[in-house]
Fold this protein.
Amino acid sequence: MNFNVNVGVCAVFKLVARKANTGEIARETPDFFNLVLTTGLAKMAGGAWIDRCCIGTGNSATDASQVALDNFLASTTAVAPGAADTGGIQVTTEPYYWYGRRTWRFAVGVATGNISEVMLGWGNSNAWNRALIKDTAGNPTTITVLADEYLDVISEVRIYPKESTGSFNLVDKLGAVISSHNYVARPRFSSYSSGGAAWRSSAVRYAANASLASSTTFGIGSGSIPTAPTGAVTTQFTTNSLVHTELNNGLKASKVISSSEANIVSMHRSFSSNLYGLMCGGAFNYLGENSCGFNWQVDPPIPKDDETILTYSFTLTWENYAPE
């Protein structure tokens, strides 16, 4: 049984040049989007994918095959003093997303010049994304930083989860169909205070948990997951017992529930899958339902008795998000 979901990822930038002696804004750009690169998407499950911000003076059109800036000028790993990392959710209008936000500081004299490109990455030549600086009309432009000014780069990485539906057959060890089922997965958004959206760009990890309480919100504006039937799920999936397999721009978290496992007689209907490192998560091994992630419902419920071994796979994939 494989349950599949997908998210889009992107970043929004804003550059602000300030006078060193007063902090007064000298020049600033509007917000503008980026392009997440092919190598950046591939990096996300394998380790930290953002640890610095880089700026440059190149002006070629962004292309997914690029791996670095055209003409590197400077990089920083410093966070602007007084500008703590934050995270949040946007669920007022579609498309919904959660985000992590960090403001990077380039000290006086470091970013001097006419800056035309910016990136986030895990090395000066290892770009997760790249963007040309844009004006209010969306055209490439530059921002000038003078010798007596410092530069702040405000970066907001956004995650756009998608509702997912699918179906599968439950089969026995010989491949004979036992029963047929449908599923729906709806995004779950959670603020930082409850372990949800935050600036987290470490390796993406995926967890799953069974037996959701009936009060758990089943997606935006969709009410709650109906109470499971009598004798519903008592078996719990835990992060520690999941096996992670790295995919192309994705992860598969698998769990085998054996016939000898405790509380084996049950009906599996509702699930939660939780994320870490994708600009969300209080900690890995997070078992609650208040991180960002997905809530799932299966119809009809999946039966299990003391002779049944079930194998669940929860697959998460990600791709570049291009705003319309």
Summary: Residues 211-240 have pLDDT under 50 and may be disordered.
